[in-house]
User: Fold this.
Amino acid sequence: MHILVVEDHADLATEIVDYLGSLGHSVDAAADGPAGLRLATGGHFDAIVLDLNLPGLDGLELCRRLREDARQATPVLMLTARDTVDDRLDGFEHGADDYLTKPFSLRELAARLNAITRRGMAIDPTLRVGDLSLDVSTLEAQRGTRSIALTPVRLRLLELLMRASPAVVRRAQLDRAVWGDDPPDSDALSVHIHQLRAAIDAPGEPAMLQTLRGIGYRLLPP
Assistant:
C-alpha cells in the first residue's frame, strides 16, 4: 500500500514510517496539518494515518476538508491521546474510518490499516471515470462496452490515476507507487503511459489521459 502518515511527533512518526516500510508499504510523511492536506489531496494514497492534534490545521478539520472539499474517500485512521466516547464520535463525524488511542501497538496499527482498506474495497471494487471502469478485484478494465487488456504495470498506473481523478498525479508519485525506491530508467514511465493512453483512448474516442508536461498526468471524464 501507499500510506500517508501525518504526525507532528517526530519520534513517533519515524517509528510508524519505519515499521510500515518494513512491511513492504510505501510511506510518505507530513509533520503538520497544511502539509498533510497538500499531500493527501495532491497524490494517491491507499490509507492515511492522521494525528488529531496537529499544528496549523488539526486532524478533524483536515479530515473534513478531505471528505467535503476534495471529495476523497481514502480510508483514514485517526490517532489521538483523547479516549472519550465523544472524542471518538467527533472523529467519525468528520470522516475518520477508525480510531486508535495513544499509546498503541504498531502491529495493531498495521492490522487496522489492513482492515479499513479491505472495507473500502468491499463497498465497491469498481473505479469509474466517465465511461472508463476498472474492477480492482478482477483487474478487468473497460471503456464503454470495450474491454481493455493491460499489463500489470499499466493496470497499476490506471488504478492510481483513476483513484486520484481529476487531480494531477506527479511523475515521482507514479514512479514510487509502481516501482518503490528503485525505479527503472527515466523513460520507462513515459513508455508505459504512452501505451496506456493508446489502450484507453482508442481512435474516435474523446481523450481522457492528459499529460501536464514536466509535472505529471491526470484522467478526466470525456
Summary: The CA atoms of residues 9 and 176 lie 25 Å apart.
